[in-house]
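Case 218 in the screening queue. Each case pairs one protein sequence with one candidate compound; here the compound is NAP. For every case the pipeline is the same: read the inputs, emit a complex structure as tokens, and attach any notable structural observations.

Predict complex for case 218.
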Amino acid sequence: MPIVLITGANRGIGLELARQYSADGWDVVAIVRESSPKLDLLDVRVEQLDLSDEDAVDSFPQKIEGELDLFIANAGTNHPMNTDGPGNARDWQRMMMINAIAPYQLGRALLSKMSESGKMAAISSGMGSIGENGGGWVPYRTSKAAMNMAWSCLALEAKACGVTCVLFSPGWVKTRMGGAGAEITAEESVGAMRQLIEKLTIGDTGKFLRRNGSVIPW
Ligand SMILES: NC(=O)c1ccc[n+]([C@@H]2O[C@H](COP(=O)([O-])OP(=O)(O)OC[C@H]3O[C@@H](n4cnc5c(N)ncnc54)[C@H](OP(=O)(O)O)[C@@H]3O)[C@@H](O)[C@H]2O)c1
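Case 218 output:
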């Protein structure tokens, strides 16, 4: 059975990814800070990791044995929302670790564990696009733009191993982060991204994609 690793799998988009891949017969490794009753109902392996913990991120890949088919760097935070003062600056640094540095470090360390035609997907955001910058949300935008660049560098490195790396904007999704007024459900977002992941080839590596498959400007 193919194996997928998913961060932030206790709720929101990550939980839905775990649910759909598990339902399709994949072996799912759900990476979480803390499990949830909904995740506990799924037939998945749960591993604990706080992405803000630099040492834990560094040592985590050693726990993973066997060949991986797919790694989805999904976990993310939108805190802080403001930029003023030292408290926000500290939270902003932590956000950079969670949203950009940890996903890259995990992806890079897991490269050697990927199957020959393995795939890696990072859940970024349209808010990480400088070309489509609408202003505001400065910490979140910078963290996702940093994720985009780091993952783009990872894609160049991964190409030599035959591993395809892409970034997704999942759309505006009804989760704790997206809010109840968002446009689509996690089920719709994940269903669309899974279809794209299935069809990805090495020719797609390094792309930043909407869930309909169109390319987003950097
Ligand atoms: N919802 C949207 O409209 C939308 C739009 C664009 C992009 N995205 C992106 O989609 C991804 C999933 O978001 P979501 O909408 O599903 O949001 P969510 O419901 O708020 O889920 C966020 C997930 O990230 C995890 N996480 C946060 N901080 C973490 C840390 N320090 N260590 C490990 N895990 C951590 C959370 O775990 P805890 O329960 O432990 O906090 C949770 O599992 C994120 O990268 C987000 O930026 C979402």
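Case 218 observations:
- Helices lie at 12-23, 37-40, 54-59, 85-110, 138-159, 186-199.
- The chain has one domain: 3-210.
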